[in-house]
Q: What sequence folds into this?
Protein backbone atom coordinates (compact mmCIF):
# COMPACT_ATOMS: atom_id res chain seq x y z
CA UNK A 1 0.00 0.00 0.00
CA UNK A 2 1.34 3.41 -0.92
CA UNK A 3 2.20 5.50 2.10
CA UNK A 4 0.85 8.99 2.47
CA UNK A 5 2.79 11.99 3.63
CA UNK A 6 1.05 15.11 4.79
CA UNK A 7 2.93 18.34 5.37
CA UNK A 8 1.29 20.87 7.62
CA UNK A 9 2.14 24.50 8.25
CA UNK A 10 0.72 26.18 11.29
CA UNK A 11 0.35 29.76 12.40
CA UNK A 12 1.60 29.87 16.00
CA UNK A 13 -0.76 32.74 16.80
CA UNK A 14 -3.82 30.77 15.74
CA UNK A 15 -6.00 29.36 18.46
CA UNK A 16 -7.19 26.30 16.60
CA UNK A 17 -5.25 23.79 14.55
CA UNK A 18 -6.32 21.30 11.93
CA UNK A 19 -4.34 18.31 10.76
CA UNK A 20 -4.49 15.34 8.46
CA UNK A 21 -2.97 11.94 8.96
CA UNK A 22 -1.89 9.12 6.71
CA UNK A 23 -3.30 5.62 6.53
CA UNK A 24 -6.14 5.09 8.97
CA UNK A 25 -6.70 7.16 12.10
CA UNK A 26 -8.31 4.46 14.19
CA UNK A 27 -8.08 0.76 14.79
CA UNK A 28 -10.69 -1.82 15.62
CA UNK A 29 -8.52 -3.39 18.28
CA UNK A 30 -8.37 -0.24 20.39
CA UNK A 31 -11.16 1.34 22.40
CA UNK A 32 -11.14 4.90 23.64
CA UNK A 33 -12.80 4.61 27.01
CA UNK A 34 -14.87 2.48 29.28
CA UNK A 35 -18.16 3.41 30.90
CA UNK A 36 -19.34 3.02 34.44
CA UNK A 37 -23.00 3.14 33.50
CA UNK A 38 -25.27 0.41 32.16
CA UNK A 39 -24.22 -1.09 28.86
CA UNK A 40 -26.17 0.05 25.83
CA UNK A 41 -25.92 -3.33 24.14
CA UNK A 42 -28.63 -5.96 23.88
CA UNK A 43 -26.81 -8.58 25.94
CA UNK A 44 -25.11 -8.37 29.32
CA UNK A 45 -21.35 -8.88 29.67
CA UNK A 46 -20.41 -12.57 29.59
CA UNK A 47 -18.69 -12.40 32.98
CA UNK A 48 -21.73 -10.97 34.80
CA UNK A 49 -24.35 -12.96 36.68
CA UNK A 50 -27.34 -11.09 35.31
CA UNK A 51 -28.25 -14.02 32.99
CA UNK A 52 -29.66 -15.91 35.95
CA UNK A 53 -32.34 -13.22 36.38
CA UNK A 54 -33.62 -13.64 32.80
CA UNK A 55 -36.21 -16.27 31.87
CA UNK A 56 -34.50 -18.54 29.31
CA UNK A 57 -37.87 -19.62 27.89
CA UNK A 58 -38.81 -16.08 26.94
CA UNK A 59 -37.35 -14.65 23.76
CA UNK A 60 -36.63 -11.19 25.15
CA UNK A 61 -33.49 -9.06 25.04
CA UNK A 62 -31.41 -8.03 28.01
CA UNK A 63 -32.53 -4.45 27.61
CA UNK A 64 -36.21 -5.51 27.59
CA UNK A 65 -35.70 -7.61 30.71
CA UNK A 66 -34.23 -4.63 32.54
CA UNK A 67 -37.14 -2.42 31.45
CA UNK A 68 -39.75 -4.96 32.61
CA UNK A 69 -37.98 -5.46 35.91
CA UNK A 70 -37.78 -1.71 36.54
CA UNK A 71 -41.54 -1.38 36.07
CA UNK A 72 -42.25 -4.17 38.55
CA UNK A 73 -39.73 -3.08 41.18
CA UNK A 74 -40.66 0.41 42.22
CA UNK A 75 -39.94 -0.05 45.91
CA UNK A 76 -36.59 -0.46 47.61
CA UNK A 77 -35.09 -0.08 51.04
CA UNK A 78 -32.54 2.45 52.30
CA UNK A 79 -34.57 5.19 50.62
CA UNK A 80 -33.39 4.15 47.14
CA UNK A 81 -35.85 5.19 44.46
CA UNK A 82 -34.39 2.97 41.72
CA UNK A 83 -35.02 -0.70 40.93
CA UNK A 84 -32.82 -3.75 41.49
CA UNK A 85 -32.05 -4.02 37.79
CA UNK A 86 -31.10 -0.36 37.63
CA UNK A 87 -28.63 -0.96 40.43
CA UNK A 88 -27.42 -4.13 38.70
CA UNK A 89 -26.88 -2.33 35.45
CA UNK A 90 -24.92 0.44 37.12
CA UNK A 91 -22.63 -1.72 39.22
CA UNK A 92 -21.53 -4.78 37.34
CA UNK A 93 -19.30 -2.66 35.08
CA UNK A 94 -17.93 -0.08 37.53
CA UNK A 95 -14.97 -2.12 38.75
CA UNK A 96 -14.26 -3.74 35.39
CA UNK A 97 -12.02 -1.50 33.31
CA UNK A 98 -10.56 -3.04 30.17
CA UNK A 99 -7.23 -1.97 28.71
CA UNK A 100 -7.54 1.03 26.45
CA UNK A 101 -4.82 -0.24 24.10
CA UNK A 102 -4.86 -3.77 22.69
CA UNK A 103 -1.57 -3.52 20.78
CA UNK A 104 1.23 -1.85 22.80
CA UNK A 105 2.80 1.15 21.14
CA UNK A 106 6.40 2.43 21.29
CA UNK A 107 6.95 6.15 20.74
CA UNK A 108 10.57 6.73 19.77
CA UNK A 109 12.01 10.23 20.07
CA UNK A 110 14.50 11.47 17.44
CA UNK A 111 16.57 14.63 17.31
CA UNK A 112 19.63 16.55 18.41
CA UNK A 113 20.05 17.69 22.02
CA UNK A 114 18.24 20.90 23.09
CA UNK A 115 15.34 20.29 20.69
CA UNK A 116 12.74 19.65 23.39
CA UNK A 117 12.64 15.83 23.20
CA UNK A 118 12.51 15.29 26.96
CA UNK A 119 9.95 18.07 27.33
CA UNK A 120 7.77 16.50 24.63
CA UNK A 121 8.13 12.94 25.96
CA UNK A 122 7.21 13.86 29.52
CA UNK A 123 4.26 16.00 28.51
CA UNK A 124 3.06 13.28 26.17
CA UNK A 125 3.35 10.70 28.97
CA UNK A 126 1.34 12.94 31.30
CA UNK A 127 -1.35 13.40 28.67
CA UNK A 128 -1.70 9.69 27.86
CA UNK A 129 -1.74 8.78 31.55
CA UNK A 130 -4.37 11.45 32.17
CA UNK A 131 -6.72 10.01 29.53
CA UNK A 132 -6.30 6.52 31.03
CA UNK A 133 -3.45 4.94 29.03
CA UNK A 134 -0.69 3.20 31.03
CA UNK A 135 2.38 5.09 29.87
CA UNK A 136 6.02 5.18 30.95
CA UNK A 137 9.08 7.12 29.75
CA UNK A 138 12.39 5.27 29.35
CA UNK A 139 15.11 7.91 29.26
CA UNK A 140 18.45 6.56 28.02
CA UNK A 141 20.26 9.44 29.73
CA UNK A 142 19.13 8.13 33.11
CA UNK A 143 20.56 4.70 32.27
CA UNK A 144 23.82 6.39 31.27
CA UNK A 145 24.00 8.31 34.56
CA UNK A 146 23.42 5.08 36.49
CA UNK A 147 26.28 3.36 34.67
CA UNK A 148 28.69 6.27 34.37
CA UNK A 149 28.54 8.12 37.69
CA UNK A 150 31.27 10.60 36.83
CA UNK A 151 30.61 13.93 35.16
CA UNK A 152 30.07 13.17 31.45
CA UNK A 153 31.90 15.89 29.58
CA UNK A 154 31.73 16.46 25.83
CA UNK A 155 34.40 13.79 25.20
CA UNK A 156 32.00 11.10 26.41
CA UNK A 157 29.83 11.79 23.34
CA UNK A 158 32.62 11.77 20.78
CA UNK A 159 31.64 9.12 18.18
CA UNK A 160 35.32 8.38 17.54
CA UNK A 161 35.85 7.30 21.13
CA UNK A 162 35.10 3.55 20.91
CA UNK A 163 35.12 2.92 24.66
CA UNK A 164 32.50 5.56 25.44
CA UNK A 165 30.48 4.65 22.35
CA UNK A 166 30.25 1.08 23.67
CA UNK A 167 28.99 2.34 27.05
CA UNK A 168 26.33 4.47 25.35
CA UNK A 169 25.20 1.57 23.15
CA UNK A 170 24.91 -0.76 26.15
CA UNK A 171 22.82 1.81 28.04
CA UNK A 172 20.48 2.17 25.05
CA UNK A 173 20.20 -1.62 24.78
CA UNK A 174 19.30 -1.98 28.47
CA UNK A 175 16.69 0.74 28.21
CA UNK A 176 15.21 -0.91 25.11
CA UNK A 177 15.03 -4.33 26.81
CA UNK A 178 13.44 -2.89 29.96
CA UNK A 179 10.93 -0.98 27.86
CA UNK A 180 9.81 -4.03 25.88
CA UNK A 181 9.64 -6.14 29.03
CA UNK A 182 7.37 -3.55 30.67
CA UNK A 183 5.13 -3.36 27.61
CA UNK A 184 4.99 -7.13 27.36
CA UNK A 185 3.68 -7.38 30.92
CA UNK A 186 1.26 -4.60 31.76
CA UNK A 187 2.19 -1.46 29.82
CA UNK A 188 0.26 0.13 26.97
CA UNK A 189 2.48 2.93 25.63
CA UNK A 190 6.23 3.37 26.20
CA UNK A 191 8.25 6.43 25.20
CA UNK A 192 11.88 5.79 24.27
CA UNK A 193 13.57 9.12 25.05
CA UNK A 194 16.97 9.33 23.33
CA UNK A 195 18.62 11.11 20.41
CA UNK A 196 18.41 8.10 18.02
CA UNK A 197 20.14 10.26 15.42
CA UNK A 198 21.43 7.51 13.09
CA UNK A 199 19.38 5.55 10.59
CA UNK A 200 21.11 2.37 11.75
CA UNK A 201 19.97 2.91 15.35
CA UNK A 202 16.37 3.54 14.28
CA UNK A 203 16.39 0.40 12.11
CA UNK A 204 17.62 -1.64 15.08
CA UNK A 205 14.82 -0.25 17.29
CA UNK A 206 12.24 -0.91 14.58
CA UNK A 207 13.29 -4.55 14.11
CA UNK A 208 13.53 -5.22 17.84
CA UNK A 209 10.09 -3.80 18.67
CA UNK A 210 8.05 -4.88 15.65
CA UNK A 211 9.60 -8.25 14.77
CA UNK A 212 10.47 -9.59 18.23
CA UNK A 213 7.39 -8.27 20.05
CA UNK A 214 4.89 -7.19 17.37
CA UNK A 215 4.56 -3.74 18.95
CA UNK A 216 3.57 -0.69 16.97
CA UNK A 217 6.30 1.92 16.56
CA UNK A 218 5.88 5.65 16.02
CA UNK A 219 8.82 8.04 15.59
CA UNK A 220 8.63 11.65 16.82
CA UNK A 221 11.41 13.84 15.44
CA UNK A 222 11.96 17.39 16.69
CA UNK A 223 13.90 19.58 14.25
CA UNK A 224 14.91 23.14 15.07
CA UNK A 225 17.16 25.58 13.24
CA UNK A 226 15.95 28.72 15.02
CA UNK A 227 18.99 30.02 17.00
CA UNK A 228 16.79 31.80 19.55
CA UNK A 229 14.84 28.65 20.41
CA UNK A 230 18.02 26.56 20.67
CA UNK A 231 19.70 29.15 22.89
CA UNK A 232 16.64 29.31 25.12
CA UNK A 233 16.55 25.51 25.44
CA UNK A 234 20.25 25.33 26.26
CA UNK A 235 20.09 27.98 28.97
CA UNK A 236 16.70 27.30 30.55
CA UNK A 237 16.34 23.56 30.03
CA UNK A 238 19.71 21.87 29.89
CA UNK A 239 21.32 23.88 32.64
CA UNK A 240 18.82 22.27 35.04
CA UNK A 241 19.68 18.82 33.65
CA UNK A 242 21.17 16.28 36.09
CA UNK A 243 24.21 16.12 33.78
CA UNK A 244 25.31 19.59 34.92
CA UNK A 245 24.53 19.48 38.61
CA UNK A 246 27.04 21.59 40.58
CA UNK A 247 28.73 22.69 37.32
CA UNK A 248 29.39 26.35 36.55
CA UNK A 249 26.63 27.65 34.27
CA UNK A 250 28.91 29.09 31.59
CA UNK A 251 31.04 25.94 31.55
CA UNK A 252 27.86 23.88 31.22
CA UNK A 253 26.65 25.97 28.26
CA UNK A 254 29.96 25.68 26.42
CA UNK A 255 30.20 21.96 27.09
CA UNK A 256 26.67 21.33 25.95
CA UNK A 257 27.09 23.29 22.73
CA UNK A 258 30.13 21.15 21.96
CA UNK A 259 28.07 18.02 22.69
CA UNK A 260 25.50 19.19 20.13
CA UNK A 261 28.29 19.64 17.55
CA UNK A 262 29.46 16.04 18.13
CA UNK A 263 25.95 14.71 17.62
CA UNK A 264 25.57 16.73 14.42
CA UNK A 265 28.50 14.79 12.96
CA UNK A 266 26.42 11.60 12.85
CA UNK A 267 22.89 13.00 12.58
CA UNK A 268 20.70 11.54 9.82
CA UNK A 269 17.20 13.06 9.89
CA UNK A 270 14.20 10.89 9.04
CA UNK A 271 13.74 11.00 5.29
CA UNK A 272 10.22 10.86 3.84
CA UNK A 273 11.47 8.77 0.92
CA UNK A 274 14.07 6.47 2.46
CA UNK A 275 12.03 5.96 5.65
CA UNK A 276 8.53 5.90 4.16
CA UNK A 277 7.82 2.49 5.73
CA UNK A 278 7.88 4.07 9.20
CA UNK A 279 5.07 5.84 11.02
CA UNK A 280 6.35 9.24 12.12
CA UNK A 281 5.76 12.92 12.71
CA UNK A 282 8.42 15.57 12.12
CA UNK A 283 8.00 18.76 14.19
CA UNK A 284 9.78 21.83 12.81
CA UNK A 285 10.74 24.81 15.00
CA UNK A 286 8.50 24.04 17.96
CA UNK A 287 5.29 23.59 15.98
CA UNK A 288 5.80 25.98 13.07
CA UNK A 289 5.37 23.13 10.59
CA UNK A 290 4.60 19.39 10.72
CA UNK A 291 5.17 16.43 8.44
CA UNK A 292 3.13 13.29 9.19
CA UNK A 293 3.49 9.85 7.62
CA UNK A 294 1.57 6.55 7.99
CA UNK A 295 -0.43 7.18 11.17
CA UNK A 296 -1.85 3.81 12.20
CA UNK A 297 -4.35 3.31 15.00
CA UNK A 298 -6.17 5.36 17.56
CA UNK A 299 -3.19 5.97 19.86
CA UNK A 300 -0.96 7.34 17.11
CA UNK A 301 -3.70 9.70 15.93
CA UNK A 302 -4.17 10.95 19.52
CA UNK A 303 -0.41 11.48 19.81
CA UNK A 304 -0.37 13.55 16.59
CA UNK A 305 -3.35 15.58 17.82
CA UNK A 306 -1.58 16.33 21.11
CA UNK A 307 1.82 17.13 19.60
CA UNK A 308 0.26 19.68 17.28
CA UNK A 309 -1.09 21.60 20.24
CA UNK A 310 1.93 21.92 22.55
CA UNK A 311 4.83 24.34 22.54
CA UNK A 312 8.02 24.53 24.58
CA UNK A 313 8.06 28.29 25.11
CA UNK A 314 7.79 29.54 28.72
CA UNK A 315 4.39 30.66 29.99
CA UNK A 316 2.28 30.76 33.15
CA UNK A 317 -1.11 29.25 33.92
CA UNK A 318 -3.17 30.44 36.89
CA UNK A 319 -5.95 28.30 38.35
CA UNK A 320 -8.50 29.30 40.94
CA UNK A 321 -11.89 28.18 42.10
CA UNK A 322 -14.83 30.53 42.16
CA UNK A 323 -15.39 32.59 45.27
CA UNK A 324 -17.37 31.09 48.14
CA UNK A 325 -21.02 30.56 47.11
CA UNK A 326 -24.30 30.50 48.99
CA UNK A 327 -24.49 26.70 48.59
CA UNK A 328 -20.91 26.33 49.88
CA UNK A 329 -22.09 27.87 53.15
CA UNK A 330 -24.74 25.13 53.40
CA UNK A 331 -22.26 22.39 52.31
CA UNK A 332 -24.45 21.52 49.30
CA UNK A 333 -22.86 20.22 46.12
CA UNK A 334 -23.47 21.39 42.55
CA UNK A 335 -26.22 23.82 41.64
CA UNK A 336 -25.82 27.27 40.13
CA UNK A 337 -25.76 29.64 43.13
CA UNK A 338 -24.56 33.21 43.51
CA UNK A 339 -21.48 34.26 45.45
CA UNK A 340 -21.69 34.79 49.19
CA UNK A 341 -20.52 38.14 50.67
CA UNK A 342 -17.06 36.66 51.23
CA UNK A 343 -17.10 35.28 47.69
CA UNK A 344 -17.74 38.78 46.34
CA UNK A 345 -14.86 40.05 48.47
CA UNK A 346 -12.60 37.40 46.91
CA UNK A 347 -13.67 38.60 43.47
CA UNK A 348 -12.24 42.02 44.29
CA UNK A 349 -9.03 40.60 45.77
CA UNK A 350 -8.52 38.39 42.73
CA UNK A 351 -8.75 41.42 40.46
CA UNK A 352 -6.13 43.21 42.60
CA UNK A 353 -3.84 40.17 42.41
CA UNK A 354 -4.09 39.93 38.62
CA UNK A 355 -3.31 43.64 38.30
CA UNK A 356 -0.21 43.26 40.49
CA UNK A 357 1.05 40.33 38.43
CA UNK A 358 1.09 42.61 35.37
CA UNK A 359 0.65 39.79 32.86
CA UNK A 360 0.92 40.60 29.18
CA UNK A 361 -1.89 39.37 26.94
CA UNK A 362 -3.70 37.64 29.80
CA UNK A 363 -6.91 35.80 28.92
CA UNK A 364 -9.47 34.78 31.56
CA UNK A 365 -11.53 31.61 31.17
CA UNK A 366 -14.62 30.84 33.21
CA UNK A 367 -17.35 28.23 33.15
CA UNK A 368 -20.91 29.16 32.19
CA UNK A 369 -22.04 29.08 35.82
CA UNK A 370 -22.86 32.25 37.72
CA UNK A 371 -20.34 31.84 40.52
CA UNK A 372 -17.29 31.73 38.19
CA UNK A 373 -18.56 34.58 36.00
CA UNK A 374 -19.15 36.72 39.10
CA UNK A 375 -15.70 35.85 40.47
CA UNK A 376 -13.95 37.07 37.30
CA UNK A 377 -16.20 40.10 36.74
CA UNK A 378 -13.76 42.63 38.29
CA UNK A 379 -10.72 41.50 36.27
CA UNK A 380 -9.71 43.82 33.44
CA UNK A 381 -8.86 41.30 30.75
CA UNK A 382 -10.60 39.48 27.87
CA UNK A 383 -12.92 36.74 29.13
CA UNK A 384 -14.15 33.54 27.55
CA UNK A 385 -16.88 31.23 28.88
CA UNK A 386 -16.40 27.48 28.46
CA UNK A 387 -19.22 25.01 28.93
CA UNK A 388 -16.56 22.31 29.30
CA UNK A 389 -15.40 24.06 32.51
CA UNK A 390 -18.78 23.59 34.23
CA UNK A 391 -18.67 21.63 37.49
CA UNK A 392 -19.15 17.87 37.51
CA UNK A 393 -22.89 17.13 37.30
CA UNK A 394 -24.10 15.19 40.34
CA UNK A 395 -27.39 14.03 38.80
CA UNK A 396 -29.96 13.09 41.45
CA UNK A 397 -27.55 14.36 44.14
CA UNK A 398 -27.43 17.95 42.87
CA UNK A 399 -27.80 20.55 45.65
CA UNK A 400 -27.83 17.89 48.39
CA UNK A 401 -25.53 17.83 51.41
CA UNK A 402 -23.27 14.83 52.06
CA UNK A 403 -25.47 13.92 55.01
CA UNK A 404 -28.59 13.93 52.82
CA UNK A 405 -26.88 11.75 50.21
CA UNK A 406 -25.61 9.30 52.84
CA UNK A 407 -29.11 9.06 54.33
CA UNK A 408 -31.13 8.86 51.14
CA UNK A 409 -28.67 6.94 48.93
CA UNK A 410 -26.35 5.02 51.28
CA UNK A 411 -25.24 2.48 48.65
CA UNK A 412 -24.44 5.22 46.14
CA UNK A 413 -22.43 7.05 48.80
CA UNK A 414 -20.45 3.88 49.60
CA UNK A 415 -19.80 3.03 45.95
CA UNK A 416 -18.44 6.51 45.34
CA UNK A 417 -16.07 6.20 48.30
CA UNK A 418 -14.81 2.85 46.98
CA UNK A 419 -13.96 4.13 43.48
CA UNK A 420 -14.45 7.87 43.29
CA UNK A 421 -12.77 8.29 39.89
CA UNK A 422 -14.92 5.80 37.95
CA UNK A 423 -18.15 6.22 39.98
CA UNK A 424 -20.88 7.96 38.02
CA UNK A 425 -23.75 9.76 39.77
CA UNK A 426 -27.17 8.42 38.70
CA UNK A 427 -28.19 10.66 35.78
CA UNK A 428 -24.90 12.49 36.27
CA UNK A 429 -21.17 12.32 35.57
CA UNK A 430 -18.02 10.65 36.86
CA UNK A 431 -14.52 12.06 37.16
CA UNK A 432 -13.64 9.87 34.19
CA UNK A 433 -16.39 11.60 32.18
CA UNK A 434 -15.08 14.96 33.33
CA UNK A 435 -11.54 14.19 32.13
CA UNK A 436 -12.89 13.40 28.67
CA UNK A 437 -14.95 16.60 28.69
CA UNK A 438 -11.90 18.66 29.66
CA UNK A 439 -9.58 17.33 26.96
CA UNK A 440 -10.30 20.26 24.56
CA UNK A 441 -9.55 22.64 27.45
CA UNK A 442 -6.18 20.99 28.03
CA UNK A 443 -5.37 21.18 24.33
CA UNK A 444 -6.17 24.88 24.28
CA UNK A 445 -4.18 25.48 27.49
CA UNK A 446 -1.16 23.93 25.78
CA UNK A 447 -1.40 26.55 23.04
CA UNK A 448 -1.99 29.56 25.29
CA UNK A 449 0.71 31.70 26.87
CA UNK A 450 -0.72 33.45 29.95
CA UNK A 451 -4.18 32.39 31.07
CA UNK A 452 -6.27 32.49 34.26
CA UNK A 453 -8.84 29.71 34.61
CA UNK A 454 -11.68 30.35 37.09
CA UNK A 455 -13.40 27.02 37.57
CA UNK A 456 -14.74 24.53 40.12
CA UNK A 457 -13.39 21.97 42.60
CA UNK A 458 -13.68 18.79 40.48
CA UNK A 459 -12.62 20.61 37.29
CA UNK A 460 -9.56 22.09 38.98
CA UNK A 461 -8.60 18.67 40.34
CA UNK A 462 -8.63 17.23 36.82
CA UNK A 463 -6.50 20.05 35.40
CA UNK A 464 -4.02 19.85 38.29
CA UNK A 465 -3.76 16.08 37.91
CA UNK A 466 -2.69 16.58 34.30
CA UNK A 467 0.07 19.06 35.10
CA UNK A 468 1.22 17.33 38.31
CA UNK A 469 1.11 13.83 36.80
CA UNK A 470 -1.30 12.42 39.39
CA UNK A 471 -2.95 9.01 39.07
CA UNK A 472 -6.68 8.39 38.78
CA UNK A 473 -6.67 7.27 42.44
CA UNK A 474 -5.06 10.52 43.60
CA UNK A 475 -7.02 12.87 41.32
CA UNK A 476 -10.40 12.95 43.16
CA UNK A 477 -8.72 13.75 46.48
CA UNK A 478 -6.49 16.66 45.45
CA UNK A 479 -7.15 19.49 47.87
CA UNK A 480 -7.99 22.77 46.15
CA UNK A 481 -9.20 25.27 48.77
CA UNK A 482 -11.41 28.23 48.05
CA UNK A 483 -9.92 31.72 47.73
CA UNK A 484 -6.53 30.41 46.62
CA UNK A 485 -4.65 30.86 43.34
CA UNK A 486 -2.42 28.07 42.04
CA UNK A 487 0.33 29.16 39.66
CA UNK A 488 1.68 26.60 37.20
CA UNK A 489 4.97 27.08 35.32
CA UNK A 490 5.62 24.07 33.02
CA UNK A 491 9.29 23.08 32.69
CA UNK A 492 11.17 20.40 30.75
CA UNK A 493 11.42 18.11 33.75
CA UNK A 494 8.00 18.68 35.28
CA UNK A 495 5.88 21.59 36.43
CA UNK A 496 6.68 24.19 39.08
CA UNK A 497 3.61 24.66 41.30
CA UNK A 498 3.00 27.60 43.61
CA UNK A 499 0.05 28.17 45.94
CA UNK A 500 -0.95 31.78 46.61
CA UNK A 501 -3.48 32.52 49.35
CA UNK A 502 -5.44 35.76 49.13
CA UNK A 503 -6.40 36.00 52.81
CA UNK A 504 -10.18 35.85 52.49
CA UNK A 505 -11.85 33.47 54.92
CA UNK A 506 -13.96 30.67 53.41
CA UNK A 507 -15.53 27.35 54.32
CA UNK A 508 -13.75 24.10 53.50
CA UNK A 509 -15.39 21.85 50.90
CA UNK A 510 -12.70 19.13 50.88
CA UNK A 511 -13.77 15.63 51.91
CA UNK A 512 -11.10 12.98 52.39
CA UNK A 513 -11.78 9.33 51.72
CA UNK A 514 -13.17 7.76 54.93
CA UNK A 515 -11.50 4.73 56.52
CA UNK A 516 -14.71 2.69 56.34
CA UNK A 517 -16.04 2.32 52.78
CA UNK A 518 -18.21 -0.74 53.43
CA UNK A 519 -21.82 -0.84 52.33
CA UNK A 520 -23.09 -1.63 55.81
CA UNK A 521 -21.25 1.13 57.64
CA UNK A 522 -22.94 3.46 60.07
CA UNK A 523 -23.97 6.98 59.13
CA UNK A 524 -21.29 8.25 61.50
CA UNK A 525 -18.57 6.33 59.63
CA UNK A 526 -19.89 7.49 56.26
CA UNK A 527 -19.75 11.13 57.32
CA UNK A 528 -16.49 10.86 59.25
CA UNK A 529 -14.56 13.11 56.86
CA UNK A 530 -17.29 15.48 55.70
CA UNK A 531 -16.21 19.14 55.73
CA UNK A 532 -17.41 21.41 58.52
CA UNK A 533 -20.23 23.85 57.71
CA UNK A 534 -18.23 26.81 59.06
CA UNK A 535 -14.48 27.61 58.88
CA UNK A 536 -12.42 26.58 61.89
CA UNK A 537 -10.77 29.15 64.11
CA UNK A 538 -7.39 28.00 62.82
CA UNK A 539 -8.26 28.52 59.17
CA UNK A 540 -5.25 29.82 57.18
CA UNK A 541 -7.60 32.07 55.21
CA UNK A 542 -7.98 34.88 57.71
CA UNK A 543 -9.85 37.90 56.48
CA UNK A 544 -7.29 40.64 55.93
CA UNK A 545 -8.14 43.60 53.74
CA UNK A 546 -5.26 45.82 54.95
CA UNK A 547 -1.71 45.61 53.70
CA UNK A 548 -2.61 42.91 51.20
CA UNK A 549 -0.06 44.01 48.61
CA UNK A 550 2.79 43.95 51.13
CA UNK A 551 1.85 40.49 52.42
CA UNK A 552 1.22 38.90 49.01
CA UNK A 553 4.69 37.41 48.68
CA UNK A 554 4.54 35.88 52.16
CA UNK A 555 1.54 33.86 51.07
CA UNK A 556 3.37 32.15 48.19
CA UNK A 557 4.31 28.59 49.06
CA UNK A 558 5.37 25.56 47.07
CA UNK A 559 3.02 22.61 47.10
CA UNK A 560 4.95 19.70 48.54
CA UNK A 561 2.24 17.37 49.83
CA UNK A 562 1.47 14.27 47.78
CA UNK A 563 -2.27 14.36 48.49
CA UNK A 564 -2.34 10.72 49.63
CA UNK A 565 -5.70 10.32 51.36
CA UNK A 566 -5.44 6.74 52.63
CA UNK A 567 -2.40 5.01 54.12
CA UNK A 568 -1.42 1.46 53.20
CA UNK A 569 -2.58 0.25 56.63
CA UNK A 570 -5.94 1.91 56.19
CA UNK A 571 -6.34 0.43 52.70
CA UNK A 572 -5.96 -3.05 54.17
CA UNK A 573 -8.81 -2.35 56.59
CA UNK A 574 -11.20 -1.28 53.82
CA UNK A 575 -13.29 -4.17 52.55
CA UNK A 576 -13.82 -3.83 48.82
CA UNK A 577 -16.64 -5.94 47.42
CA UNK A 578 -16.92 -7.30 43.88
CA UNK A 579 -18.98 -4.70 42.04
CA UNK A 580 -19.26 -7.06 39.05
CA UNK A 581 -21.41 -9.46 41.02
CA UNK A 582 -25.10 -8.40 41.03
CA UNK A 583 -25.70 -10.57 44.12
CA UNK A 584 -23.84 -7.99 46.22
CA UNK A 585 -26.18 -5.27 45.11
CA UNK A 586 -29.29 -7.37 45.82
CA UNK A 587 -28.03 -8.18 49.31
CA UNK A 588 -27.47 -4.48 49.90
CA UNK A 589 -31.08 -3.67 48.99
CA UNK A 590 -32.93 -6.49 50.75
CA UNK A 591 -30.89 -6.42 53.99
A:
Amino acid sequence: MESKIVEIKQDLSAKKSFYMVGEGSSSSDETESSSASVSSGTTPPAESNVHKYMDPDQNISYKTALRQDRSSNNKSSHGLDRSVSDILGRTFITACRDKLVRTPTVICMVGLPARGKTYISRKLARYLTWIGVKTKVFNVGEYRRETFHEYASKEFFNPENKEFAEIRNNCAKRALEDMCSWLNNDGEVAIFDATNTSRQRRELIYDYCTKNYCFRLFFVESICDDPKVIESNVKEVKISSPDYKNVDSQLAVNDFLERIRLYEMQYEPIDETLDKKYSFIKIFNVGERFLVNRVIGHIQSRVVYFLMNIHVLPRTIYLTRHGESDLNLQQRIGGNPNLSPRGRMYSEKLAEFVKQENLADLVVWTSQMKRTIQTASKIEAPKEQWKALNEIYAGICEELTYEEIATKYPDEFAMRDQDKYHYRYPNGESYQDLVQRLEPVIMELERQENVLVVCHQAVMRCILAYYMNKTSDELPYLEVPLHTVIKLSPTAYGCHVEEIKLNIEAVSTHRERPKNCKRFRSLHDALETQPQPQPSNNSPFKQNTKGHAQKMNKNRIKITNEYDSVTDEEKEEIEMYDANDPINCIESIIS
